[in-house]
Amino acid sequence: MTSSIRLLLLFLCLPLVLFAGPSISPGLVGVWAQDGYGRILHVEGNTFTEYHTCAISCSSGETFTEEEFFAEFTIEEVTDSKLALRIGLNCYTFKKLDRLPDLCANPDPALKNDPLHNFETLWQTYQENYCYFEEREINWEAIGDRYRSKITKRTTPFELYLVLEEMIAELGDGHSFLEVPYELEEAYQARQDSLQAAKLANRNEDGTKKKRIGINIDKTLSKLTHHYIPKPKTYNGGLVKWGMINDEVGYVQINGMMNMANYDPSGRKKNASFERLYAKMEAQSEDPFADEVAGAHFVMKKVLTDIGRGKACIIDLRFNGGGIDEVGLAILSYFSDEEEVLAYKKARMLSAYTPEIPLRLPPSSKTYPGEVFILTSYFTASAAEVFMLGSLTATPDAIRVGSPTEGIFSDILGRYLPNGWYFGLSNEVYLGPDGANYENKGIAPHHVIDYNKSKFWFLHQLKEELPMGDAAINKVLKLLADAQ
Known about the structure:
By secondary structure, this protein is an alpha+beta fold. The protein contains 14 helices and 21 strands. The chain folds into 3 domains: about 5-105, Lipocalin (Beta Barrel), CATH 2.40.128; about 110-200, no CATH class; about 215-484, 2-enoyl-CoA Hydratase, Chain A, domain 1. It has helices spanning about 5-15, 65-70, 100-105, 115-130, 140-150, 155-170, 180-200, 215-230, 270-285, 290-305, 325-330, 385-395, 455-465, 470-484, and strands at about 30-35, 40-45, 45-55, 55-65, 75-80, 80-85, 90-95, 175-180, 235, 240-245, 250-255, 310-315, 345-350, 350-355, 355-360, 370-375, 400, 410-415, 420-425, 430, 445-450.
């Protein structure tokens, strides 16, 4: 991950939001506490330092120069007591503090690597910020008691990692995770591989060796696309693929809501050369976020030019794990000119929530006039689900085919533990205009395809069925034929 996109993730997807401007105004200097999110921003001299706080702890986050910030973010409002900062659709507010809290200004060095203190910091951060205990039927107090009993002063870093990893897994939330130093991750993976090998014997009951099954996702998706479109067009190494299935039906496969910037006009295939070029251009960009959104508009204009003559379009989001909400909404704008609010988002603030932020479509130069079908799977997630949530209002007649989406809508709130480990959690609620919350449930299809919830077996299922075609695409073609 490049430094520029790491910065973007830290302050957009995770989001402590900062600002853009020519220089640091004296009114910005000082200590600011973000409403919700448990973050403090300390502006001093030419540096910006973030702190991650909860009731029992304060951990140092990132420190950046003014140049790194001012290229990305916009001041909405600043007074003696309030700071409002905007990036894309989001506006976040901060209150001025007299000084840094004591936990941040005078941390106890003895607690930095204390296993119980790090455990309590993670547990308390979830207790204050995580917003889906009820939807996921989680008793966090009971879970904390159960795992806390496994921690002592002598708990090793690896043992602490195992406990925290297992505790977080109980949430069943794809936006909750823990990142640790490489050597711990490597030891954990070796342990998991050993457990998996013990669980799955490598021989059948008759003693013959089991056949090893492997899946190459890029090759599988390429075969799927070519089954229906002999010469599909592609963008950014296959992130977007499109073409006409026949004279009346267009198809566009969108495999992510990130890495959309138009940094490689040659359209080369996804490989190490493409990835190096993209990373280099991204690092040199003055505004990677704007490049992402502009790239979405760029490719969708091309898509509609090529498939806009059709009577129907299939939008395939089955392999789209998310990215940036604004990218998803930019893509959706080419299938609707709806001006009403599509959804709302708000962040948890202990026992309350921040004011709701409305999500609307950006304007687009053209919209698709025909019927719309959207394919989803259990791996349609995050920003791809924000696209789906918006589509309920923007394209209410669109027919959904596949399985329910994963049900993880929130941006990721990223935090550091005192020992330097990084973790993330869901602290935002996304609601439809009618107040509906699809977290953990996902957005259901009109026509169900029985996909496996394991990504490996889902892709294996597609690969095995491909000689006879794709079940979801074939379903759409049958629906269109039956309607004639």
